[in-house]
Amino acid sequence: MKIPMLDLSEQYQSLRYEIINSLDAVLLSSTFILGDHVKRLEQDVASLSNALFGVGVANGSDALHISLQACGVKPGDEVITTPFTFFATAGAIVRAGAKPVFVDIDPVTFNIDPTKIEQAITKNTRAIIPVHLYGQATDMNPILEIARKYDLYVVDDAAQAIGAEYKGKKVGELGHTTCFSFFPTKNLGAYGDGGMIVTKDSKIAEKMRIIRVHGSKPKYYHQVLGYNSRLDELQAAVLNIKLQHLARWNMLRREKATAYTKLLNEKLSNFIVTPTEVEGNYHVFHQYTIRVEKRDELQRFLQKNGVSTMVYYPVPLHLQPAFQELGYTEGDFLNSEKAAKEVLSLPMFPELKLEQQKYIVDTIEKFFSSYFS
Ligand SMILES: *Cc1c(COP(=O)(O)O)cnc(C)c1O
């Protein structure tokens, strides 16, 4: 059996004619930038996340950068975040002119450990970026409390967590702004790049709308230094159709996750740690990520037997060559470093079949029985 990490073909088949018709309507309308499809998507994503304003942008990385700029982050400022995330989280901080300050993760959720944030705050700290990794919300209440106490902005990196919830609240109504990515592999994926920022703050929303069009309002009168970062109509047309299915797709992901956990814990609980959904969270399983000591060997064995897996992420950001100048060394963030050596994400998408999941777990079982015999 051959099982890819992600298979988008069935999803496309089910929406194909609806999508083609909608794309055709955009092409016939000749409105390609910031038209009605983008407006509708901005409203709908804001409302699904209990925010008030949505700002469509070119990608999730720009969503972070524009959020930081709109919150007033400037050269000399520090922004606290996790080292166990995709590069873009900290890349956006540096692009905004600020310095990333890393704080280690909680080894159970893989998200930033709120109990370690306060000791990283200095007089230059301006914002915190919690990342809701793999689709599970960070423990936000202590972070929001710290932010109030020290007058910091909170910019949520929810690139992997659209539709997730935390203690009865939606991801999107927690921080000052929340950033989503519509990269094709995300839970709500475009057919190209795309991103969105949501917020309840009308002033921040207005700033972000200006920044994404070269800082201009009205056109050709430039208030601040912005850039070209817009979501286009074709992508928004696709996303408006897909958005109607997001809640169901997230539910299906959760079902697949439950099935994995049951199968893995029946037979392999001595070798594998399955993901934990913290009480009060609604995890949307962008990834189903296990921990396993013999990770690289297991990954090779699975690949040989037709099962694709991925490591998100093999090198924590404080050890990336691009961030060498920040001066961190190995040993600074032990939980992140250990996670980078042990995590393995298994195939996960709403259309994944139970037989495929059984084959994956059987293959993992084979690996351990041959390894230890
Ligand atoms: C995907 C992702 C991003 C960046 O989104 P793009 O749309 O690819 O720019 C940022 N942070 C995290 C955690 C991501 O997974």
UniProtKB/TrEMBL annotation:
The cross-references to InterPro entries, in alphabetical order and at most eight, read: DegT/StrS_aminotransferase (IPR000653), PyrdxlP-dep_Trfase (IPR015424), PyrdxlP-dep_Trfase_major (IPR015421), PyrdxlP-dep_Trfase_small (IPR015422)
Q: Which CDD domains match?
A: AHBA_syn
- Residue ranges that the Swiss-Prot or TrEMBL entry lists as coiled coil: none
Q: Does the keyword Coiled coil apply?
A: no
Please name the GO terms of the biological process aspect recorded for this protein, alphabetically.
polysaccharide biosynthetic process
**A molecular function (GO) term:** pyridoxal phosphate binding
Q: What residues sit in the active site?
A: K186
User: Where is the PTM N6-(pyridoxal phosphate)lysine found along the chain?
Assistant: K186
Please give the family membership noted in the entry: Belongs to the DegT/DnrJ/EryC1 family.
Q: What is this protein called?
A: Pleiotropic regulatory protein
Origin organism lineage? Bacteria, Bacillati, Bacillota, Bacilli, Bacillales
